[in-house]
Amino acid sequence: MARVMEWFDLVNINGTVIGKAPRNVCHGHPGLMHQAVHVLVFDRMGRLFLQKRSPAKDVQPGKWDTSVGGHLHPGESPLAGAQREMLEELGVPPLALTPAYRYMWRSEIETELITAFYTRHEGPFHLDPGEIDEGRFWSPTEIEERLTSGIFTPQFEREYYRIRECHVLLEA
C-alpha cells in the first residue's frame, strides 16, 4: 500500500501560516519552520510520563522523549493537535490541557515551532505501538541523573530546562 504524503503548514516565528510543504521536504530543510505540539503528562506525585520512541521512527528512534509529541495537521490549532496526539499516542482523551510554553527548536534536519501543554493523568495508557516502544513515569531526580547519558532525545534534554523553569514539575 502506498504511503500518503503528509503535508505541514510552514509558519513564521509568530505561528502565522506562510505556506505548505511535504513532511519529507520539511525534514531536510531547517529553513522551513513547521508546528508541533508536546503534552507533558504528570501523575499526582509530580512524576513526568515519558515515551520511548519506536525503533521505526525516522527521527531519534529508540530514545526517551516527552509524554506526547506530534506535528500539527494543516489548519489545526495547537490545542486541537495536542488533544488529537494525546488520544493517538496514549490512547486516552486528554482531561484539561494547560498551556505551558512555546519555543523554536532547530536541529540539523528541521525547525519546529513547539507549543507545549501539561496535564495530570494516572493512566492506564494504551500506547500506539507504531509510535511508542514503551512508556513510564519518571521522577525529576531520575531524569536529572540521566541527562546527557544519550538515552533522551536532544530536544527533550533542551526542553527539560523549560519544564523546570516554568515550575510545571513543582506544581504538578
Nutshell version of this structure?
This protein has 172 residues and is of the alpha+beta class. It has helices at residues 23-26, 78-90, 140-146, 154-165, 168-171, and strands spanning 7-11, 17-22, 33-42, 48-53, 64-65, 68-71, 98-106, 111-120, 132-138.
Number of helix segments? Answer: 5
- Major sheet: arrangement of strands: 6-3-8-7
Based on CA atoms alone, the radius of gyration comes out at 15 Å
Tell me the structural class.
alpha+beta
> What does the oligomeric state look like here?
single chain
Major pleated sheet: 4 strands, mixed
- Taking pLDDT < 50 over at least 5 consecutive residues as the criterion, the unreliable ranges are none
Question: What are its keywords?
Answer:
single chain; 172 residues; alpha+beta; four-stranded mixed beta sheet; three-stranded antiparallel beta sheet; 23% helix; 34% strand
Walk me through what this model shows.
This protein has 172 residues and is an alpha+beta fold. It is built from five helices and nine strands, in the order ββαββββαβββααα. It has a four-stranded mixed beta sheet with strand order 6-3-8-7, with helices on both faces. The chain has a three-stranded antiparallel beta sheet with strand order 5-4-9. It has a two-stranded antiparallel ribbon with strand order 1-2. Strand 7 and strand 8 form a beta hairpin. The termini are far apart. The mean pLDDT is 91.
